[in-house]
Amino acid sequence: MKLTILGGGGFRVPLVYGALLTDHAEGRVTEVVLHDLDDSRLHAVARVLDEQAADVPDAPKVTATTDLDEALRGADFIFSAIRVGGLEGRANDERVALAEGVLGQETVGAGGIAYGLRTVPVAVDIAQRVARLAPDAWVINFTNPAGLVTEAMSRHLGDRVIGICDSPVGLGRRIARVLGVANPREAFIDYVGLNHLGWVRGLRVAGRDELPRLFADPDLLGSFEEGKLFGVDWLQSLGAIPNEYLHYYYFNREAVRSYQAAEKTRGAFLHDQQARFYEEMQRPDAAALTAWDRTRAEREATYMSENRETAGAGERDADDLSGGYEKVALALMRAIARDERTTLILNVRNKGALAVLDSEAVIEVPCLVDANGAHPVSVSPLPDHATGLVCSVKAVEREVLAAAESGSRTTAVKAFALHPLVDSVNVARRLVEGYSEVHPGLAYLK
After folding, report:
1. Which helix (H) or strand (E) holds 226?
2. Using omega within 30 degrees of 0 as the cis cutoff, is the peptide bond preceding 381 cis?
3. Is 349 in a helix, a strand, or coil?
């Protein structure tokens, strides 16, 4: 079975390959094709993968190419993890937004809109090529903003594109751990929303909802990442556990102030950190896997550090430093390729699962997965406060898609202005001007 990884020179690719190395069952991935526009990054990542596979006799074969069509032909699965504009683009997203006093995070607020505007046209081109060159392939999208990009691609690939994210998985794992659930895989996580905008409303084990036990114990509720991040009182007020990215909404003023005061934005930090890694990989004598492991550990330990500082949450727990999206990707591929039926939280077309949104809207929700793909589970209605946020942000996503399709600068301004974290139409206009100046990928906006 052939897996093509778009963004194959990306730093997190070894996580995916490492997961593949643990799979020895029949029907596993036997060939991995890395595609990237940067040949030097491809070479660096290929070195890491080669060292990972050193003691694995049946490791999947790895090839690399800068030719997109070549990479797509014959693929059974396509993993899309591209970053249009690179980490320099992410740093610019943050800088332009913070200069206007609004959030520049890569998936939330102004930064997410800017990232979406330059990514959607590229993602649509990829989807159209897949439909032409590999019509039977399944596309697993991790490219951010994951929900928005998945919806853009679904207009050309239908249900054969599925978005994944590790945030809901990590949240569910943390809740199960503090509740003492012996086997978290047996727990059903009642989670619903959009990508980076969702809530856990229940965690059922053997048909019993264990979440009320967590809310009834303030010490237990405050003992894990989200309890520290949001505070016990606020979680009890909500009656649900929000995805960590909702910290940008509930504590927006504090988050913006913290990001403005930081020595470097997250994008700038990762840009410099990864530049050192790729530069080190230019040396023939460099220990590739050791360098990658060291860089990854630093990356994970500093994840959302400004938010945790604002909340006084302290350092991340060691158990939360292991990532997870590669495990979701592998579980998804296994379920489809081998008909190993499972339940995963995924980004898929709504199809009536969440009544407040139309059937084509991509949502993040538990799905039953089998050989025919991912099927969203019907969920109970969201409370009004969550419904308002979901509908507002989905409306913004639709304006981003419309602007990307039409090239309308006016529509792009509308997308920024309607976002709940952008507080002025004039700010929206300046954001479009500022982003257009620093991103060549937005030259299509007229």
Report:
1. helix 225-230
2. no
3. strand
Residue 140 has pLDDT above 60, yes or no: yes
Q: What is the pLDDT of residues 278-331, one digit of tens each?
A: 999 999 999 999 999 999 988 887 776 667 566 676 655 655 545 578 889 999
CB 172 within 8 A of CB 226: no
> Which value, in Å, is the radius of gyration of the alpha carbons in the chain?
21
CA atoms within 13 A of residue 240's CA, in its CB half-sphere: 20
CA-CA distance, 263 to 372, in Å (whole number)?
48
d(CA 218, CA 377): 31
Average pLDDT, the chain: 93
Whether 79 contacts 16, CB under 8 Å:
yes
**Residue 117 contacts residue 401 (beta carbons within 8 Å):** no
Residue 144 is classified by DSSP as S
Cα(359)–Cα(292) distance, integer angstroms: 42
pTM (two decimals): 0.94
Cα gap 52→220, rounded to integer Å? 38
pLDDT digits (tens, 9 = 90+) for 54-82: 989 999 999 999 999 999 999 999 999 99
Distances in Å between the alpha carbon of 59 and those of 80, 137, 242?
A: 21, 22, 39
Q: Phi, psi at residue 210, to the nearest 5°?
A: -90, -10
- Rounded Cα distance between 308 and 230, Å, is 9
Q: Are strands 138-141 and 77-80 parallel, antiparallel or unpaired?
A: parallel
- Alpha-carbon span 235 to 218, nearest angstrom: 10
CA-wise closest residue to 16 among 39, 56, 43, 48: 48
CB atoms within 10 A of CB 69: 12
Name the 3-class secondary structure at 195.
coil
Q: State the alpha helices, DSSP H only, in 107-145.
A: 109-133
